[in-house]
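Example: Nucleoside triphosphate pyrophosphatase.
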Amino acid sequence: MPKGIVLASSSVHRRELLKNAGVDFTTDPAELDERALEAPMKDSGTAPDEIAQILAEAKATDVSERHPGSLVIGADQTLSLGDRVFHKPANMEEARRALLSLSGKTHHLNSAVVLVENGAVVWRHTSIAALTMRELDPGFVGRYLAHAGQKALTSVGGYQIEKEGIQLMEAIEGDYFTIIGLPLLPLLKELRARGEIDG
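Written out as structure tokens, the predicted fold is:
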């Protein structure tokens, strides 16, 4: 008997991925200060994929308290270049600097997803995608950001791969769902195994 699925995220993209996959769920975003949670990890040697996992677990655990008996999906994504972790840019200048930092280099998108039931993590998974950005001319970066507008501030790194951001890339290794921020195939497999969706 399905327990009911709750997505602990306000992400439009994650909601769309689950909806398009035919998953029946409700949404209840976590009420956490992610940057405050992440601050102690900054200089502790915590790997970027582990940061994503910890934040995903914190979100799902927070929401699980409000939904006893339900299966809560928590997800988070970090963008890393070596040891440096990028966040959503606060303004266009931060977006410009982020894109120029990534220019000509390979960075990683670390996407974590967890399932929490009654406050306990019952399943976790992390997928990593490697994206190589082409060498970007500063003038082009300015034009790209002018065209992208405020959308550039809604994604880590200042780009959306499903939109104009694809023009920034030279090579991609990893699946689309990991890049968008929800490792969907492993999640669907686990939901089927638990009898939460038809399989």
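The chain has a mean pLDDT of 94.
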